[in-house]
Amino acid sequence: MTRGKAVEVFNVSKRFGDYQALDHVDFTIQENEFFTLLGPSGCGKTTLLRMIAGFETPSEGAIVLFGQEIDRLPAHKRHVNTVFQSYALFPHMTLAQNIAFGLENLGWDKPRREVRVAEMLELVHMTAFASRRPDQLSGGQRQRIALARALAPEPKVLLLDEPLSALDLKLRQAMRDELRALQRQTGITFIFVTHDQKEALDMSDRICVLGQGRVQQIGTPAEIYEEPENRFVADFIGETNFLDAEVIALDGARARIRTPLGLEFDAAQKGLSGPGPATLSLRPEKIGLQEQATGNVLTGTIRSRNYMGGYTHFVVETGGASLRVSRRNAVSQAESYAVGQEVRLGFRDESVRVLAR
Amino acid sequence: MRGARIWGLVPAWVLMLATLMVPLLIVAAVSVAERGSYGGFAWDFNPLSYREILFSEDWDGNLVFDPKYLAIIGRTLLLAGATTLICMALALPVAYVIATRPPKTKALLIYLVTLPFWVSMIVRVYAWLIILGSEGFVGRFWHWIGGEGTLLFTPGAMLVGMVYSYIPLMVLPVFAAIEKLDPALLEAGADLYGSRWTTARRVILPLTWPGLAAGAVLVFVPALGTVLEPMLLGGGKQMMMGTLIQTQFGGARNWPFGAAVALVLMAMVVIVLVINARRSIRKEARA
Ligand SMILES: Nc1ncnc2c1ncn2[C@@H]1O[C@H](COP(=O)(O)OP(=O)(O)O)[C@@H](O)[C@H]1O
Ligand SMILES: [Mg+2]
């Protein structure tokens, strides 16, 4: 499968006055990709999206869309459509008119427009609502119409700015699946902005983690979660335990680690320059308790226990460090560990990520 | 509770009665009174004044239809209408530019729009007399490009003066309407391949229509009764309803006729206000 490049962002920076919203952001998005920009609020996700749409111009750098540099192209000439965070449906038009708006501007004739509008309404299951106005819809329905309106002109790239954040939990989950299916079905490149890491992991082909205006890491959901490259990514995505450690020897991608817990082992590393202080990241679900404790084994005391339904979360104190451990309630036995109980806990070398301090 | 609320309105009612209803009744009474020999009027019922608006007596004392006052009414409507349309066309881009500035600039610009209200109307209209006159910069420019005569004392001069006087009343409501617009809607317009012009026509205009309608009423109604611009910039050559009323009470000493024209003018204003009220009621009902 040969896939072309849909969007290339070359070293883009954006300053608002003295404030550096984006700092030398650089990445390439492939055709047909579901690409997610993930990061905490204020990290510059919307700004980046707005630059691709043409509502902001980069202070530095360039954006290339299907091989064409678009910095001088006004928004209305870019073959890119946006699903706005607030939906931004035209309140004075019916839903059908909203969807037809872009088609009219592209010069589609009436019969072709009508066919396409009907198709789009059907796609988002809103056919019965064609002649309603946006203020007569629920949040979820507005969301669908915003999606239909943006998809109707057959954009090459669809930009979605936190499109699910205004929906309630149940609806959000359903829309995740629908969006993902829609992307597969249409083959359009999606650039999806969210601050919700679960959403990002669930939906994306690749995730770009943004923090403080910089790209922190780009990779598949599994890479982002399992192999975080820095403390920001490890912390922002999922839960983790950070442990101070010492790198005593470095051999390519492997590092010899010594922890204050008294353990010494080898672990995968990336980005370390040499021996010295480092931080370990160890996910709570990768620590086994009692009979599941394998690999590097320690003993500790259970300090707290939170029953979460499918999981139980424990805090275990060992050698002066507090480790969060989560245990799947496979046979409804997790409650059997009591607070204050002595337990064995263990993790395998490959579960540990070594990060620069 | 209800009673107390009604009593609370008494001062307002008294004020309305004393300053609006009573004078209005007096004007209505005068309009059907007899013309006094030396100005003023005499208490004698005589609806002649209304007849005079449409008919005049020829040498033999026969009544003939005479459109000279109808022409004045028509001219008044035309000039007020043109003023309103020009104000709309100018106010839209001005209000749009102001509404899209940063907050501080916005406040300053709005202050500047209202600034002329701090100077007396007469002074401002006189200023145009100078600007358009042969020594003023517009008058000089007119001669420089080869124009002849004076720009003053023409319908055009009146129009310039009226647009200038009333345009703040259009800019303010239109600005308020544009400011309420969600900027994302304009971006959505551009995102969906709408040029600036398309977005202005299909998104901004329909959504700011209530502001334009409010501005139209605010401009059209006072423009109907305007006196200063026709007198000073029109040189009194082109009679308007306002100046007609004024001359009847002044030089012509025909109070009943002046009062009758004043009531016709008021009827026109009331019609405009009723149309506007019906429009907003319809809109409320739909919302
Ligand atoms: N037009 C603007 N003027 C000044 N600052 C802005 C502007 N737009 C965004 N910012 C700032 O840039 C930062 C990034 O904003 P944004 O891209 O909206 O973040 P996100 O979408 O990731 O929450 C924020 O601190 C925001 O205050
Ligand atoms: Mg945002």
From TrEMBL, chain A:
Xref: InterPro entries: AAA+_ATPase (IPR003593), ABC_SmlMolc_Importer (IPR050093), ABC_transporter-like_ATP-bd (IPR003439), ABC_transporter-like_CS (IPR017871), Mo/tungstate-bd_C_term_dom (IPR008995), P-loop_NTPase (IPR027417), PotA-like (IPR005893), Transp-assoc_OB_typ2 (IPR013611)
GO MF annotation terms: ATP binding
Pfam families noted in UniProt: ABC_tran (PF00005), TOBE_2 (PF08402)
Signal peptide span: none
PROSITE patterns, per the entry: ABC_TRANSPORTER_1 (PS00211), ABC_TRANSPORTER_2 (PS50893)
Entry keywords, A to Z: ATP-binding, Cell membrane, Membrane, Nucleotide-binding, Translocase, Transport
Enzyme Commission number(s) from the entry: 7.6.2.11
Reaction(s) the record says it catalyses: ATP + H2O + polyamine-[polyamine-binding protein]Side 1 = ADP + phosphate + polyamineSide 2 + [polyamine-binding protein]Side 1
The ABC transporter domain, residue ranges: 7-237
Described function: Part of the ABC transporter complex PotABCD involved in spermidine/putrescine import. Responsible for energy coupling to the transport system.
Similarity field: Belongs to the ABC transporter superfamily. Spermidine/putrescine importer (TC 3.A.1.11.1) family.
NCBIfam families: potA
Binding partners and assembly: The complex is composed of two ATP-binding proteins (PotA), two transmembrane proteins (PotB and PotC) and a solute-binding protein (PotD).
Record-given protein name: Spermidine/putrescine import ATP-binding protein PotA
Organism, scientific name: Salipiger mangrovisoli
Higher taxonomy: Bacteria, Pseudomonadati, Pseudomonadota, Alphaproteobacteria, Rhodobacterales
UniProtKB/TrEMBL annotation, chain B:
Subcellular location: Cell membrane
Native organism: Salipiger mangrovisoli
SUPFAM superfamilies, sorted: MetI-like (SSF161098)
Family: Belongs to the binding-protein-dependent transport system permease family. CysTW subfamily.
Membrane topology: Multi-pass membrane protein
Name of the protein described by the UniProt record: ABC transporter permease
Highest taxon, organism lineage: Bacteria
CDD domains reported for this sequence: TM_PBP2 (cd06261)
Listed PROSITE patterns: ABC_TM1
